């Protein structure tokens, strides 16, 4: 099998390989609604028809793959594997489930439900590309083997758990790519996501794809993702005046003294700012309810003061109010965190805000004030960040919601789950659309790397074929187009599909890594990719191929199954 | 309050109006992940700042509304209310939640967490438009009143629970509108939805918006939605030949006799079809694995035989194979259900299939065979159904997935939650974009109906104003544009916001109706709407207005809050 194991696939002991043992080891799906009933009705109809024909235990092999990269790009990040493994580890019908199925399928014989009562995934094997890997169309992300009736039942939940996970991870990775490594990326999508776990999943997978933190507290709790968040416009407008602040005292950071009237200190600073020539005298009266809100927030969080400055008017009110509070905090040894802009021309406003911060640093001799963090957060997406980059801006952190978590520019990834073999007989699904013809046979898949360390091509081979080897020439053929083929001498060969659920086989089980490790894998894989595959405009397609043997077999089977005249 | 109660708002006894009593009455949220931690981090930051300032119990009023109808349309269907009420009925922090919050907010005083331990929604009041109502931009869908810190914590989950629910219900209603009342609409979105409860919510709300059934078994179980589903391409290609059918016997429907070799009966019919002149002799050899799959499925479901006919070739293989099995079933007293087309030119194939069914009815004298149900299901959406309608087709039922459940053409509805009053003082949120200025004040909202029974205009008034009355002239003003105003003499007046969660008040609580009732409400409301508001192309915007008094107040407050020079 050559020296081709994936980096973190560890062959740990599989001693307690019983179904229950494995369930305890991997835990339950994040969403308690991911149960055995979360599937399409037709999977049960088919299960019954298979069972009636005595065919339910036929050994089937299915491939899970997608046909086209999303977002007009040429790469996808694979995600959702851990949830799939958790799903099958806990796969079991309860008596409640069975009663319900009996009620909706009254025409089925009673023994069928006895069969369902016994169904679990102990006889299923799952091979998968490691989560967080960069993947490409047509190459199986997962290969699922087992009794045909059971694996069919898994089709819908697996596709559900992979589709959105991979889509939103890819979207996050694209946002990271356009924002650049130095920016802080915050996922703010909970309120606009498609339901509660549209949000929970989004938070998990955006972090995996390269975000730094989320606003979603439950996701922070479930996955250990760092949390971020300060205050909203409503907080600002809930204040009417500075009279609403009952306790005006603030102890200095080092605890050595207490400022009895922090409000007055802020007001003094506001006056100094308003008369300072270097600040251009642009400031008139600022909004007093906003000032009260900022002071109140600073008294609660003197070490983490970050203010939303656009409730009334960024440059006329928000920025001078913020500076006054930040300077007063500075007098007491605290360092303000920065501002958030949530409307208007973010390029212009961030540049203007930066000018003020630098002028304040200069005017009042406050080292570091010019570097105040500027967060922007108004309906941002790949395009707007790209446009900001082109205009020039001073934003340090982006808070991204709607477009990120709903994958607004393409809200679905078309993952499919196709039968490729049954009882060791290869199967094909034809279509008038060649792109929709499935690639038959139980396959092994490899990534071939070139001299410069970049991946060159993915190749699928029949299980019986020898693995490609580093330094040995191999012919890589386009699966459907005869003229497209190339010889490759790989410098390095990586086998893509690892065994994550060995079923009754004695194969070693690859570890499910932590979210942090998956995130690192994703970052590393994207860095390893040739830049032209990943660029936003006119990216180069990555090549996906089959071996010469598999190519011949596909076309033989195709001719065999298609009605005469179909291929003329 | 005039004769203006909403149709199904019943004033049932509120005797057990305690928080726990109400929780028991309404049940838990559908998704167990919808807990008190499902909110944005900044809501907790604000709660702490309010608490530090002694302001947390200040009585706040927030409006939940959206600014623009989705999908280029001029109407939206409001959904998600029941889940919001279930959410607040069960609102409570567990000790686990508290520990987690302490760990992520170590800078907060311990007493704050004692306060959080006591928080529930017994002091919150929720007023809402009934679920399933047709709604319009700017008019509050919900008004939430209560302690400012608590209502802020509810902002994120409420917006999450309403946004996608309303979006996908509206999408379903639009699909129903373009398909027409006579077609059967099936939601097939589970595998492509955004996570498990993207799917569960989609199934619930598509049914609400006018769909007839779903493929999602768990949704059928949770909500009682009818289930549909037969078999997939994999089922067809899992068969190799007719030899795989072990038990070939089939008892007739009336139980009077047994056909010992159903396979031979099917083969006889296939030969008759192939030589029949009236069928045009188009049929050569059909695919035998497909035929085996159909026979096997028919033996399992003789009374519900519905076949997917496009695995190999619809007209050369799928249709003749289907007809042979259907005719053999007919010999035994069964009636086949129909076919499903999942690829190719659905208009052409449905018309050709219909021709064959009619010819079979004629040739073999099988009354009703020509009316065989044709279901279509390949990447359908509003546009493709519209295009099919224009081309002419013979499809009876549409199975719709990806575009429906992900709301592909617009994946988010921009619901917002804005503070409109605190401690009885009206508040406004300004913005350089006039469309984003909030409408201040605690308001009541009414729908005014004209002579022909159509709704004419929605109007918001200050709480202190008298309600509009049928037969009395009232001036309706555009909230922001001075010149847009009109006198209306309504024939009928409907108050929109009903009390669904009275908190500590003694207001009668409106009932949460069943899903079926909400679905009927939605259908009725759409039928009551003037057709030009609902048409697909260039629909007429529905008018939304404020009273003269509220108009004056908004503009007075606006001038007051905006920095000088802002409005020049």
UniProtKB/TrEMBL annotation, chains A, B:
Write the signal peptide boundaries.
none
Its Gene Ontology biological processes?
A: NAD+ biosynthetic process via the salvage pathway
Q: Where are the transmembrane segments?
A: none
Query: Cofactor(s) for this protein?
Result: Mg(2+); Mn(2+)
| Translocase among keywords | no
PTM per UniProt? Answer: Transiently phosphorylated on a His residue during the reaction cycle. Phosphorylation strongly increases the affinity for substrates and increases the rate of nicotinate D-ribonucleotide production. Dephosphorylation regenerates the low-affinity form of the enzyme, leading to product release.
Q: Where is the Nicotinate phosphoribosyltransferase N-terminal domain?
A: 37-163
Output the superkingdom of the source species: Eukaryota
EC code(s) of this entry: 6.3.4.21
GO MF entries: glycosyltransferase activity; metal ion binding; nicotinate phosphoribosyltransferase activity
List the keywords (alphabetical). Glycosyltransferase, Ligase, Magnesium, Manganese, Metal-binding, Phosphoprotein, Pyridine nucleotide biosynthesis, Transferase
Q: Give all residue intervals belonging to the Nicotinate phosphoribosyltransferase C-terminal domain.
A: 442-553
Q: Which NCBIfam families match?
A: NAPRTase_put
Q: What does this protein do?
A: Catalyzes the first step in the biosynthesis of NAD from nicotinic acid, the ATP-dependent synthesis of beta-nicotinate D-ribonucleotide from nicotinate and 5-phospho-D-ribose 1-phosphate. Helps prevent cellular oxidative stress via its role in NAD biosynthesis.
Name used for this protein in its record: Nicotinate phosphoribosyltransferase
